[in-house]
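Quick illustration for those who missed Monday's session on complexes.
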Amino acid sequence: MTVTPPATLPVLDYFGVDALIDEESRALREAVRAYVDRRVRPDVAGWYEQGSLPVRDLARELGSLGVLGMHLQGYGCAGTSALAYGLACFELEAGDSGLRSLVSVQGSLAMYAIHRYGSEAQREQWLPAMASGTAIGCFGLTEPDFGSDPSGMRTRARRDGSDWILDGTKMWITNGSVADVAVVWARTDEGIRGFLVPAGTPGFTAPEITRKLSLRASVTAELVLDGVRLPADAMLPGATGLSAPLSCLNEARFGIVFGALGAAHDCLSTTIAYAGSREIFDRPLAAYQATQLKLADMTLELGKGFLLALRLAALKDAGTLDHRQISLGKLNSTREAIAIARECRTILGAAGITLDYPVLRHASNLESVLTYEGTSEVHQLIIGQTVTGHAAFR
Ligand SMILES: Cc1cc2nc3c(=O)[nH]c(=O)nc-3n(C[C@H](O)[C@H](O)[C@H](O)COP(=O)(O)OP(=O)(O)OC[C@H]3O[C@@H](n4cnc5c(N)ncnc54)[C@H](O)[C@@H]3O)c2cc1C
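Prediction with flavin-adenine dinucleotide bound:
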């Protein structure tokens, strides 16, 4: 039997990737895509322009969709494969990196920290509400003077009887000012420990960071802890040392491996359609060699990145994914995605600088995605150390 291939191929179909994705994960991907098409695409440019996101409403909807903490087991979480989680991140970030950030911080940072390091009482108290989106979490590790090197953190927790007193400042915290609970990492006499700080605790405030030019459809805040008194059971009992917050970051980085490619895919498919309909010198822009060279290279990078992402998902689902392998994906996906977004912008010409098309919005968002969860340079250093044996961080 001969099969007639379609005249043109959607970018990822070209790579035959669906054959590597199980049916359940594909169904979930379609459900998330349909949600983003219906609920996010019509409004996201407006949210971006206003610098706001209806976090509470979206969180409840995302909870109903089953994507909050979706790869965790029990406590109302969906318990899906890592692959399904990655594909959901791809579709969410095709809508906007701010949407995927909301889901990543909730599920991979805040919920994962409580799930893995919390007491049974802490899990029961927070996880079902967070999975349903009725409670929102944030994750406070970065400080004004310590981003890439969180080991220098100044936030301190000291004992006062059986209570803890927390003092310090966290910076650039996604969901910070809308969160019901903040997972805060602090230095103690026993090393770095994690604490659950409910919103409204006296001495705890979360002023929003404004004037952002990137991730505008996302809430970012400072966390100020001024003599915050917490009971002994506010501490995460299982988390000792910096390896605990770093393990949470690895979870979120995995989502970014797929997510950044979703943003790139949205740019590229928008641009291919635009170039097909834009007439320049009496011919479609897509018919010029100079355009096709760009589109071909971007298609190739997107497909290569997706194949790497699928491989990392397979390793994660097999339980053998090493954090140094996640660095390969986080670096590649973010670096290639931002390059694709910028190249797509050139093809759109002046139209590309507006919010009428998603391309420059994605490119601006990807500036943050390139920086958070370990900058590109930090991931290069991790890869460099892995292949040479020499640590070059200091
Ligand atoms: C929108 C947004 C949301 C965020 N959300 C959160 C959140 O929810 N929770 C949270 O805890 N944090 C969050 N962050 C913070 C983020 O993780 C940090 O910004 C990131 O770790 C980088 O830290 P920094 O900004 O202090 O940069 P710095 O660490 O000051 O880095 C500046 C530059 O120095 C480079 N550099 C660092 N070390 C080396 C080295 N050894 N050799 C060579 N170059 C080096 C970096 O790559 C970078 O280019 C968020 C950031 C943004 C922008």
